[in-house]
Amino acid sequence: MSERQMQIGEVAERTGLSLRTIRHYEEVGLVIPSARSKGGFRLYTDADVERLMVIRRMKPLDFSLEEMRDLLDITDRLAATDDPPVGEELQRLRERLDSYRKVTDARCETLRARLEMAQDFAATLRVRLQADTRSGA
Fold first, then answer.
1. CB neighbours of 58 closer than 8 A, spacing ≥ 6?
2. What is the pLDDT of residues 29-45, one digit of tens each?
3. pTM metric for this prediction
4. DSSP-H helix ranges across the chain
5. Residue 55 CB: number of other CB atoms within 10 A?
6. pLDDT (0 to 100) of residue 87
7. What Å distances lie between residue 107 and 20, 26, 62, 111, 114, CA to CA?
8. Which of 5, 35, 97, 125 registers the highest number of CB atoms within 10 A of its CB?
């Protein structure tokens, strides 16, 4: 049984990414469609969709395309079954992955702090609006 393949429209729907963005990620080599149909349409597998979701989750954390590529290379290598990493290589890959985790944690914390400030500001505006409404201004 072969793995189910999806055209780009379905992939866009499943990932919340635009067709243009998905094509861009292909152009820069982050996610290459697993196959092409006889008519030349891009065909994606669940693994391709999962790869796109990793990229989508990295984007709001301001990771560069190069960092995305590096992280995908690390996870691809760690997931390799034909020639799995061992010894020093495995240790290096885990250390690199852990450094991405630390950066991600720090960026999430920064975003949480910014969100809290934004919510405080929104609350201040609501209070001000209510005060203006009550005073008849």
1. 67, 68, 71
2. 999 998 988 888 899 99
3. 0.80
4. 8-15, 19-27, 46-58, 65-79, 87-134
5. 21
6. 96
7. 27, 26, 9, 6, 11
8. 5
